[in-house]
């Protein structure tokens, strides 16, 4: 058990370092995939089998695919070079990270288990889908329903955010089109105004035809 | 049995790594990846405490955090794509229009 923890913990930290240090965004997200799968393994060592499976499916599967898709869509895998506008940000962030990690480690060392670990582990029931589902649908029914609403809002919001802005309407009434139309010289260069211009020339032809008749 | 304190220490170190990433990376997508790292660190701590107390509340909370992360990623990446269409950049230093 201890060997599994050391191995998975080391893989988690290596993946995390790759995530924050890789210059290429695709490499960084692959490092994050390594971290996520190692965290799934850690969940398994903590008797949370359902969460381990969910971690692989939801995080390492769905979320990372979305990340990689957007990185490649925006062609954003090149790092930003050039001077950082904030001075000493790397040094200060490193110092803050070391202080934070150190204080967490001190807190962790001082933590005492309230129950014997073996007894507490049997109370978890292996963290299988049935015991998690029972807890979720009895004690935590309201948060469960709230999360479903949150997901619905996220779907609608994502669709609303990425849809193209509505194009300029074509069927503007003629009086308005004349008001909006720029001078004739620039009207040819702009695609949107062309129909009004063509209509005008058609009208001139009609006028000429009537004159001939 | 691995003591709970080892898991908490690992979670704290991972959280600090994510914080360093949020502070130093300058592409919006990389900031997002670092936030995911911090969420996972908190998940490790929650599952470790669930085992320590023999209570499933922690594991249920992790389930909610995962759904939250999925929703956050969907919305956040949509916002990044919308900004990229308008401004042609994902550099967070250029997106300082709301700076007070």
From TrEMBL, chain A:
EC numbers, comma separated: 7.1.1.-
The keyword Transferase appears for this protein: no
Transmembrane stretches, start-end: 26-44, 56-76, 88-108, 140-162
Compartments in which it is found: Cell membrane
Region (Disordered): 183-213
Topological category with respect to the lipid bilayer: Multi-pass membrane protein
Gene3D superfamilies in UniProt: NADH-ubiquinone/plastoquinone oxidoreductase chain 6, subunit NuoJ
Primary location: membrane
Enzyme class: translocase
Catalytic activity entry: a quinone + NADH + 5 H(+)(in) = a quinol + NAD(+) + 4 H(+)(out)
InterPro entries per UniProt: NADH_UbQ/plastoQ_OxRdtase_su6, Nuo/plastoQ_OxRdtase_6_NuoJ
Compositional bias per record (Polar residues), positions renumbered to this chain: 191-203
One Pfam family matching this protein: Oxidored_q3
Key words, A-Z: Cell membrane, Membrane, NAD, Quinone, Transmembrane, Transmembrane helix
Biased composition (Basic and acidic residues): 204-213
Function according to Swiss-Prot or TrEMBL: NDH-1 shuttles electrons from NADH, via FMN and iron-sulfur (Fe-S) centers, to quinones in the respiratory chain. Couples the redox reaction to proton translocation (for every two electrons transferred, four hydrogen ions are translocated across the cytoplasmic membrane), and thus conserves the redox energy in a proton gradient.
Entry similarity comment: Belongs to the complex I subunit 6 family.
Name of the molecule in the record: NADH-quinone oxidoreductase subunit J
Species whose genome carries this gene: Deinococcus arenicola
From TrEMBL, chain B:
Localization in the cell: Cell membrane; Membrane
NCBIfam families in the record: PRK05715.1-2, PRK05715.1-3, PRK05715.1-5
Membrane topology (UniProt): Multi-pass membrane protein
GO molecular function: NADH dehydrogenase (quinone) (non-electrogenic) activity
Functional note: NDH-1 shuttles electrons from NADH, via FMN and iron-sulfur (Fe-S) centers, to quinones in the respiratory chain. The immediate electron acceptor for the enzyme in this species is believed to be a menaquinone. Couples the redox reaction to proton translocation (for every two electrons transferred, four hydrogen ions are translocated across the cytoplasmic membrane), and thus conserves the redox energy in a proton gradient.
Keyword annotations from UniProtKB, A to Z: Cell membrane, Membrane, NAD, Oxidoreductase, Quinone, Translocase, Transmembrane, Transmembrane helix, Transport
E.C. code: 7.1.1.-
EC class (word): translocase
Reactions it catalyzes: a quinone + NADH + 5 H(+)(in) = a quinol + NAD(+) + 4 H(+)(out)
Principal cellular location given in the protein's record: membrane
Highest rank taxon of the organism: Bacteria
UniProt similarity note: Belongs to the complex I subunit 4L family.
This protein's name: NADH-quinone oxidoreductase subunit K
Record's subunit section: NDH-1 is composed of 15 different subunits. Subunits NuoA, H, J, K, L, M, N constitute the membrane sector of the complex.
Residue intervals passing through the bilayer: 6-23, 30-50, 62-84
